[in-house]
Amino acid sequence: MSISPADVPKLNVKLLLLGEANVGKSSLMLRYTDGSFYDNKITTIGIENKTMLLRLDGKQVQLQSTSRVS
Questions:
Q1: From the centroid of its chain, how far is CA 20?
Q2: Which residues on adjacent β-strands are paired with residue 15?
Q3: Domain assignment of residue 54, yes or no
């Protein structure tokens, strides 16, 4: 018996990264969501958002992360 996508439990998780300017919040978020890293990333002005889908314990998890200067 196969499981249809509608039968997979879904979970939405929101992660907010706050901190001083130029400490690497956006770089950390990009590394986790995209697997990329840029030595000379342009400073984020305001807010940066990323979304990532993953499976955890048989559940589909949508991770929404936001990076913001505090």
A1: 19
A2: 65
A3: yes
Low-confidence ranges of the chain (pLDDT < 50): none
Helix (H, G, I), strand (E, B) or coil at 1: coil
Whose tokens are 């929101």? That residue is 14
Q: Which residues of 40-51 are buried (b: 16+ CB within 10 A; e: fewer)?
A: eeeebeeeeebe
Name the token pair of 64.
């929404």
Evaluate whether 47 touches 68 at the Cβ level (below 8 Å): yes
How, if at all, do strands 10-19 and 59-69 pair? Answer: parallel
What count of other Cβ atoms lies within 10 Å of the Cβ of residue 56?
Answer: 10
Domain residues for the domain of 57 are 16-69
